[in-house]
Amino acid sequence: MNPNNMRIGHGYDVHRFESAYVDAKPLTLAGVVLADQLSLVAHSDGDVILHAICDAILGALGEGDIGRHFPDTDPTFAGAASTDLVEQVLVMMDARQLYLVNVDITVIAEVPKLTPHRVNMISSLANLLELPEQRVNLKATTTEGLGAIGRKEGIACAAVVLLAGNA
Ligand code: MG
Ion ligand 1 — residues with CB under 5 Å? Predict the structure, then answer.
């Protein structure tokens, strides 16, 4: 690792819950489908964690944001699996000979409770990002009932990544 070639990136995303469960859009977080009977409003699968990670990596690369690369006005990305979006962002990272050092994620939500899914979500993220699980940290917090998240209207996620290069 070259200490002169390190980049930090931050990403943040929010998605609103649908008013009723949508069969075609089960709640998907970190690439894991959660059987919580909740759906998020989204052009893609609405994986708020993966979107925050994409934005964090794009930020570290100085490549703008997810909306610039995968516009929600483009029918190509309608119903897109966010795992595919992450993979495309990882290709951009590889092309610059940078690799992920670690990822730190904070989910902000009143519902669903993530504890029962934490192990699966970490494993999914480690697989997708090709990182050891110890380098993928997933935290969850609520807003103590305050604001839209507190009213259970949606889910927010913040992610920070560190990238490094060997050269
Ligand atoms: Mg999003």
Answer: 13, 51
